[in-house]
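Q: What would this complex look like in 3D?
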Amino acid sequence: MRIRVLALAAAAALLTTACGDGGGGVDVDDPDAGPGENGEASGAEGGTLIAAIGGEPDQLNPLTTTSSFAFTVLENVYDTLVQPGDDLSMEPALAESWETSDDLLTWTFQLREGVTFHDGSDFTSEDAVASLDYIVAEGANGWRFAAVDSFEATDDYTLTIHLNTPAPNLLTQLGNFKGLSIAPAEAIEAGTLADEAVGTGPFRLVSSGADVIELEAFEDYWGDGPHLDGIEFRVIPDEGVKLTNLETGEVDWIDSVPPEQVTDLEGSDALTIGRTAGFDYWYMSLNNEREPFDDPDVRRAIAFAIDPAAIAEAAKFDAATPNETAIPEGSFWYHEYAPFGHDPDQAQQLLDEAGVSGLTIDLMVTNEFPETVTAAQVIESQLAEVGISVDIRTEDFGTWLAEQGEGNFDAFALGWLGNIDPDDFYYAQHHSEGVNNFQGFSDAEVDELLDQGRVEVDEDARKAIYDQAAERIVDQASYIYFYNPDIVEAWAPHVTGYETLASAATRFVNTRLER
Amino acid sequence: MARYVALRIGQSLLALLGVSIIVFALMHLVPGDPVRSALGTRFTPELYAALVERAGLDRPILVQYFDWLGRAVTGDLGVSFRTGQPVALALGQRVGPTALLAFGALIVGLLIALPAGIVSAVKQGKAPDYAANTFSQIGVSLPDFWFGILLILVFARMLGWLPPGGYASFADDPAAALRYLLLPAVTAGVVTGAILTRFVRSSMLEALNAEHVRLARAKGLPWRYVLRHHVLRNAWIPIITVTGLQLGTLLGGIIVVEIVFSWPGIGRLALDAVQTRDYPVLQGAVLLVAAVFLLLNLLVDLVYARLDPRIRVGAST
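A: Here is my prediction, written as structure tokens for the whole assembly.
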């Protein structure tokens, strides 16, 4: 019971997301890296990749940052116990294998031997325990381990996790992203992670400044690769300029592409576009504690009046998939369900039955995420068709969050980023005690289903529970879902071995420069 | 002169104190909660209360102000809410790039304004004058984000002559630094040049029409001699003033150019700080820019007083 995570919110989702870029380029060659010392973990064999990211990381401590730009960098510096594979199921990383006890309350992990941290020390179970304890106590992701009683270093290479209740999503919670990285116990105790990154990943942090973050190949990396000498991350805030940097060869890889150009660029020989359905979703929500939005029929009416496809088109051009639920097609947890479509007549009828007319909605959006502003404009015109007027209130994100926290809104629009497990998609947002249930949604059936989902270990049974929960959440219009944006990155043709992943992890371990 | 200098320094310090009060008050009066914002999705009431206490935001605002001021005087501007980095360090990393860009822009501006303004005044009412006026009219109304992107498209993308943004420090690689500097300096410098052209022209015209100039011409001195010794010398003073003020404006006002050209300067830092309600960083950045502005003002006044004794005399009466 030491972990009482409460509330630490939600989020898996890092609200700060990267905006992509694409780039192409050419750049620095500095072929001075020799092959690695131990044969299979071959060292670098050539070149420094120049990668452009859309903003500066707020800090480089993976356990406390929530910046997606930080994770773009740290993905290559740190490792987790397990990590998402191609189908997003968890694969071995620092943990080689694991088993669960019959009562499902004890998980035993065999850790990889012979792994070295960037400071030369050996990785052992003490480091895993120290990192996980720190995540629970101080990290941004302690809430993920609500079911954990304790982490125990049984011997040097055995980690035992004791649970209070069965946790079917434990692997996802351990490996979802690099916010769950393993760092050396010493560095954690000394509190130096923010100043000095010490991971077990394929690249080592050399320097970080306002304009450039430099990584170099770590020759004692436990896995295959890396093949580059190093990576240089440059901050280029403007998306169009970032793309130009790729096209002119200033950079080799960019973390996003202006959405309106994706389709055009896909046919281009000058650069490669990496695109895959992403796990983020964008939505709006109505204040269930205010009239008339406390009436599910009024919320449903608004859902009928809104056309998610039109919002996706306006906000993301072709680079998004409209979806009336949260989880994207392609996930094991996807459940096809789209009861609303775009049906103004049905909306009008529901409003008439509820006795609502002349309604004005205060819709709060933020210019931090311009897609919310675009969505609001589409919503305004669509709701006008059913006699609802919308006051679009655009706030900076600081104000937006404060207003959301205090419940000062009729409606708001935002997105959730980077979730994998259905519990992450639904619990914090829709359980009546969820920490991010700012809309005040409360439904006994949803609560019960979400509680069941947290302890059901049979995957198919668990999926059935979440399918049912998803339908209920959509029917009750706790959130009105719009779309899942695609993850779009771009790189120069001479960059090989890089792949855009649905998990949004930017892994350069297999990347080469072939010029 | 000593008395005048002391007086001006005293005034500058008072003004800086005023700025510090306004900056501090504004930060705390605008809506949006910095701690809530820093926590983002990690928000919990417990964590929130702990952070508020750690940041000292639960104390009366006057206590917070004097505490901040007391430290600021010693160079301790606090610690960023968002990154945990000392503000002085963050500002220190950005001052160089911003100063480089501002000076670069000023040089571009002067290279445009001095010839254009002088020629335009000397050829008043003729074609060169109209051309210069048209340029300055266009220049002052040019949106810098648009002009910057246009330059990137032409010189980086189409012609491939210059990089489309980025930064290198002069100390590391002067040639690369110049290549990166050119487009952003031209972007910011054209506007500055347009403004300065008007000042150069008007102060030249004033000097040209002064009686002693007419006398000099009447007694048959060569035109070039008159221009150099009687006109430019007098026209110089207002131009120096405006140039100094423009430099101050550039230092505080090239945020957009920094964003477009991925330039790691103070403007970008301040913009990030505004968006995340990172008070310590924003306060530090505004205070620094204000201090530099006041310092430049002071220097301009002192140079001015040195060049024109009437100013000193006026101050001591």
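A: To summarize the key features: The radius of gyration of chain A is 23 Å. Residues 1-44 of chain A have pLDDT under 50 and may be disordered.
Q: Very helpful, thank you.
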